[in-house]
Design brief:
By secondary structure, the chain is an all-alpha fold. The chain is built from seven helices and no strands.
């Protein structure tokens, strides 16, 4: 009994893979039967990043070339994760965080590098946009990063409910979004 209690008291900081005990996941709302609200809010945040980059003051002239080079590298990595993640899901691809019925845990390709390559790819792409447009765009990007991590936790609670082998996958693939980083 004592081991069970200590397992439940673990936090995300105790688990480098970021899989919190099931009770913590329940605190995040579903925002719709399949998590439609999560998808809509993510689109709103992406639109805010793009709009901010278009209307806010640009980066200082002396930083534009180095930032553009960094942004190109981030965009390439982001595009790979986004496309490879979508292709890896195949018919399981959905805009919503709740998994489709009769799916399976994907472990190959981008899903062997990170658990949520499409989220990581999207974050890298909008970060790249921020680096070529405006430093002010980093503010909604930071909000989007926090939001996407919350969406990931909500999604993983559904994945744990749906797939018996998901906890093993989390132990094998520790990074959530960006290989070697996060």
């Amino acid at each position: 009994m004592m081991a069970d209690v200590s397992d439940r008291s673990r936090t995300a900081a105790d688990d480098p893979g970021g899989l919190e005990p099931a009770g913590r996941h329940g605190r995040l709302p579903s925002l719709g039967r399949r998590g439609e609200g999560w998808a809509v809010l993510q689109l709103v945040l992406i639109a805010a990043i793009v709009a901010t980059g278009l209307i806010a003051p640009p980066w200082p002239a002396g930083l534009r070339i180095p930032l553009a080079i960094g942004a190109a590298l981030l965009a390439a990595g982001g595009a790979y994760l986004l496309v490879a993640g979508g292709a890896g899901l195949g018919r399981q691809l959905t805009p919503f965080p709740k998994p489709v019925a009769e799916g399976a845990v994907r472990r190959g390709g981008a899903y062997g590098l990170v658990r949520h390559p499409m989220y990581g790819g999207a974050l890298l792409l909008v970060l790249a946009w921020s680096l070529v447009s405006s430093p002010v765009a980093l503010v909604p990007w930071a909000l989007a990063a926090v939001f996407v991590d919350a969406k990931r936790r909500r999604e993983e609670s559904w994945l744990l409910e749906e797939y018996a082998d998901y906890a093993d996958y989390v132990r094998q693939v520790r990074r959530r979004f960006i290989p070697g980083v996060w």
